[in-house]
Design brief:
heterodimer; A: alpha/beta; D-Maltodextrin-Binding Protein, domain 2; 2 domains; six-stranded mixed sheet; four-stranded mixed sheet; 21 helices; B: MetI-like fold; two-stranded antiparallel ribbon
């Protein structure tokens, strides 16, 4: 009876398999939803594998759940139906939404809940500040970046300019730009990614508040300050540079990168997270420096962007421990360095900084140091320099981008574009705040 | 005695339609009712706070200049996609319906655009028109002595380019149906017309076009749905509704407000407005179609 034997063998192996899986089931499952695609996904995967190898009692499952917006939408519906993951990545503009969600355990409470002590000061302070409320950390910084000015050293050299003297003020940038155009080096000089974010950077780097209630950090903001003198000055400068063909509006997110990489423009303001990609793809010497300043205005700091990791409510202690182990693992020097080198995002701890320096990583490529120097040398004691936090932030970004696009294309005057933006943004704030009365 | 139409138990027919009815109720009727309900509320994304606002969402909608702008953009966009698209398609279909060597190759070559995913089509067009690196701005600047076309700031250019891309993407589908329609026209009719002295123009307008009218009405409807809803992917890849809301058609605005800005009430109100508009247009089209189209021969 051969068939019978095979049947028995099959039944047996099924039981054996069940036994094995039940051993695995002893492990704590930690599900993490993130929005990291492309080359970042590879780094995420390798970090997760290392974590699982290090922690035999935890099974961390990282799931790519689409763009930031999609991940947040999915998280909201999953949370409302009781299927939330154990950890979720949310972009910086979703911070207030998460704070108001009533759906999260603040990260600062985790060590207490698990009976541990934790030294938060080992993380890099300006990054910590961005995700803190009243000095307490609510979400774990994960992929943090800021904006800086990239420039093409070869174009500057060919035009007879000093390749090691990039502009430090908008005035420098304008005069250098008109020289580059006159000498026929490029047809347009400057472009930027994330236009709305760069606009917000200008407020922070000049220590100007973008909204009332201390940039929405001491209470819910009720009014923006975009159409004040400073906001109009920024947009007016950009519109003038656009008329002079120095500034070429390059569209949202990363669409301007291609023009810079191909050498059609010589300067780009973009997130530091593009650094690795730009250096790999371009055939010229890439220089980087701080964002340009308006002469005569005070100094602030550049704003942190990117995303952070939030811990949803309703988990048992075992699961929370798994999550916390992973958050601690991300702060380990080795992990933080791997993340930084693979993506260009900031490593989050001071000790990782030290090791990178000891390895002469920054002297091999000083461009990786630029953004650090910018955030570490800037001021960190004002809300204006830390950046704005509002409920309808995503909607505001959309309105902001439309206003910038209208102003730089000349469809609308800078003053009118800012007045419209102010009105629209304030009505968004009002309708958001109405929900919390 | 009247014969039983459905032999067996009296309830059998109901049992048989139950699965489809359930699917329709669960996936269409209940969400629809929910949408109507939600449109009278304003809520936080997580539903922690919810306020009844009556018809405030609708009032806000019609007072919102951006929304009225979106309506106009949508009308221009769909008119372009439907009329320019169908006209070009019918012309190409006529050309591709001749007895020439290698016609099979041409027919397939003309249809392939439909097989592209919106992401691929969008990327191709976006790269072609990239302000600093694309081939089209380069050609245009050579032809016009230096005019710099930047569809990232020029909203009319962006709308035109997105419309052209959407039309191009749908050409394949339209052409297939037109070729099929043309091949269904009885040869004898055309032959007897030419014996009676009809030239190419009159044989097109008097015979071919009327015979194609069922195809045309069908395609009008499909293209309308396409232009209203399915172009979402193309817009998302190419412009994300920009520049300055220049290509923010209604369905994209709905997505932005509902799924990015997380304003469920406002988005629900928008989707109801779109529903009513599409329902009216569809009824209107069906009435005209059933009156005018020639279904018999």
């Amino acid at each position: 009876m051969k068939a019978k034997r095979i049947f028995i063998a099959m039944v047996f192996s099924v039981f054996a398999l069940l036994a094995v899986t039940s051993v695995f089931a002893e492990k704590v499952q930690v599900v993490w939803w993130h929005a990291m695609s492309g080359s970042r996904l590879k780094v995420v995967k390798s970090i997760v594998n290392e974590f699982n190898a290090d922690h035999p009692d935890i099974n961390l499952k990282a799931l790519f759940t689409g763009s930031y917006a999609e991940t947040l939408t999915k998280f909201i519906s999953a949370y409302r139906t009781g299927n939330a993951p154990n950890l979720v990545q949310v972009y910086e503009v979703g911070t207030q939404t998460m704070l108001d969600s009533g759906a999260i355990v603040p990260v600062y409470k985790l060590p207490e809940m698990l009976g541990e002590k934790w030294d938060w000061a080992k993380y890099i302070i300006p990054i910590l500040n961005y995700y803190s409320v009243n000095g307490k950390l609510y979400s774990m910084p994960f992929n943090s970046s800021t904006a800086m000015l990239y420039y093409n050293k070869d174009i500057l050299r060919r035009a007879g300019l000093d390749p090691n003297a990039p502009p430090s003020t908008w005035g420098d940038l304008e005069s250098m730009g008109s020289k580059l155009i006159q000498r026929g080096s490029v047809r347009s000089v400057l472009s930027f990614g994330w236009p709305g974010w760069i606009f917000e950077q200008m407020f922070a780097t000049h220590n100007q508040l973008l909204a009332d209630k201390d940039n929405g950090r001491s209470g819910r903001a009720t009014s923006m300050y975009v159409n004040g003198n400073f906001g109009v000055k920024v947009i007016d400068t950009w519109a003038r540079l656009a008329r002079e063909k120095i500034f070429l509006y390059g569209g949202p997110e990363y669409s301007a990168n291609q023009a810079f990489i191909s050498g059609r423009i010589s300067m780009l303001m973009q997130s530091t997270s593009s650094l690795a990609g730009i250096e790999k793809a371009s055939r010229f010497k890439v220089g980087t420096t701080f964002l340009p300043h308006f002469a005569g205005y005070p100094s602030g700091n550049s704003v942190i962007g990117g995303g952070s990791l939030w811990v949803p409510k309703g988990q048992n202690t075992k699961e929370l421990r798994g999550v916390w182990e992973y958050l601690k693992f991300l702060g380990k020097t080795k992990t933080a360095i791997e993340w930084h080198k693979g993506t260009g995002y900031f490593p989050t701890t001071t000790s990782a900084m030290k090791v990178l320096m000891d390895q002469e990583w920054f002297s091999k490529d000083q461009n990786f140091l630029t953004a650090f120097m910018q955030i570490l040398s800037g001021r960190r004691d004002t809300a204006a320099a830390t950046g704005v936090r509002i409920g309808p932030f995503v909607k505001y970004r959309e309105l902001e981008r439309a206003a910038i696009e209208k102003a730089v294309s000349g469809v609308s005057s800078p003053r009118r574009a800012m007045d419209t933006l102010e009105r629209q943004a304030n009505s968004q704030l009002t309708s958001y705040n109405r929900l919390f009365r | 005695m009247q014969e039983e139409r459905f032999p067996g138990h009296k309830l059998l027919p109901y049992l048989l339609i139950l699965p489809s009815a359930l699917v329709i109720i669960i996936f269409l009727v209940i969400p629809f009712a929910q949408t109507i309900f939600e449109s009278f509320f304003q809520a936080t994304p997580f539903g922690t706070h919810k306020v009844f606002v009556g018809i405030a969402n609708y009032i806000q909608l019609f007072e919102d200049m951006d929304y009225l702008h979106s309506v106009i953009i949508t009308l221009i966009f769909s008119a372009f996609v439907i009329f320019v698209g169908l006209t070009i398609s019918i012309l190409i279909a006529m050309l591709a319906n001749q007895k020439i060597k290698g016609i099979g190759f041409y027919q397939i070559a003309l249809i392939w655009t439909y097989a592209l995913s919106p992401a691929v089509a969008g990327t191709i067009w976006a790269m072609m028109f990239a302000p600093a690196t694309g081939i089209m701005p380069y050609i245009i600047s050579k032809l016009t002595n230096g005019y710099a076309l930047n569809w990232m700031t020029n909203s009319s250019a962006a709308l035109f380019i997105v419309s052209a891309a959407a039309t191009w993407k749908m050409l394949g589908y339209n052409i297939v149906f037109f070729i099929a329609g043309l091949q269904n026209i009885p040869q004898e009719l055309l032959e007897s017309a030419s014996v009676d002295g009809a030239g190419p123009w009159s044989s097109f307008f008097r015979i071919k076009f009327p015979m194609l009218s069922p195809t045309v009405t069908f395609l009008l409807f499909v293209n309308m749905l396409y232009a209203f809803f399915q172009v979402f992917g193309l817009i998302d890849i190419m412009t994300k509704g920009g520049p300055g809301n220049g290509t923010q058609i209604l369905v994209y605005k709905l997505y932005q407000d509902g799924f990015v800005n997380l304003k469920t009430g406002f988005a629900s109100a928008q989707s109801l407005v779109i529903f009513v508009a599409i329902a009216i247009l569809a009824l209107f089209q069906l009435r005209i179609a059933t009156k005018r189209a020639v279904y018999e021969r």
